[in-house]
Amino acid sequence: MKQRIKRLDKNKQQRSLTKIIIIKVLPVIAFLVAGFLLVPYGSMYFQNNKVNAIQTKNEAILFYNANCSHCQKIYPKIFWHNILNFNNESKQIQTINVQNANNKHYVAEFAIQSTPTFMKTTNTNQRLVSTNSQQIKQFIQTGGH
């Protein structure tokens, strides 16, 4: 009888632990995953709506259109690149949403013909239009294609 009671107590503890995981831990994990996936898109649409100046200390600039499917593919990678290089301005990539009316002057000023366009801040003639991560990484590091 004692052995059966112990087994029942153990089963009760396991069910209680499972219940805690399902009720308390899984929602937190789901929230974190959703945040990780959605934060870059929120930034893409709302953060870069008025860019007053080109940040010449940044390594490069990304001109993008928030509604462009190619831009939507690459922007989260640039967003997390900037987060990881938060304390190193020279490694950051400035992002400018040229879809926004406040930033449309950059299209004419830098003759942006398509998005996403990466441009080096040290040489505005060095540009890359691509969503290929390896090409972008090479361009950012060396300026070459």
Please state roughly what percent of the residues sit in beta strands, choosing from under 5%, 5-15%, 15-25%, 25-35%, 35-45% or over 45%: 5-15%
Shape assignment: elongated
User: If strands are numbered along the chain, what order do they take across the biggest sheet?
Assistant: 2-1-3-4
- Alpha plus pi helix count: 4
Radius of gyration: 23 Å
Q: Percent range for helical residues?
A: 40-55%
Runs in which pLDDT lies below 50 for 5 or more consecutive residues are: none
Order of helices and strands: HEHEHEEH
Distance between the termini: 76 Å
* Count of β-strands: 4
Which sheet architecture does the biggest sheet show? 4 strands, mixed
Look at the helices and sheets and give the structural class.
alpha+beta
Average residue pLDDT: 81
In short:
It is built from four helices and four strands; from the N terminus they run αβαβαββα. The chain has 145 residues and is of the alpha+beta class. The chain is elongated and about 70 Å long.
Characterization of the model:
There is one protein chain. The chain has 145 residues and is α+β, with helices and mostly antiparallel strands. Helices cover 52% and strands 12% of the residues. The chain has helices at 2-46, 69-84, 105-109, 133-142, and strands at 60-64, 93-97, 117-120, 127-129. It has a four-stranded mixed β-sheet, covered by helices on one side. Strand 3 and strand 4 (127-129) form a beta hairpin. It is elongated.
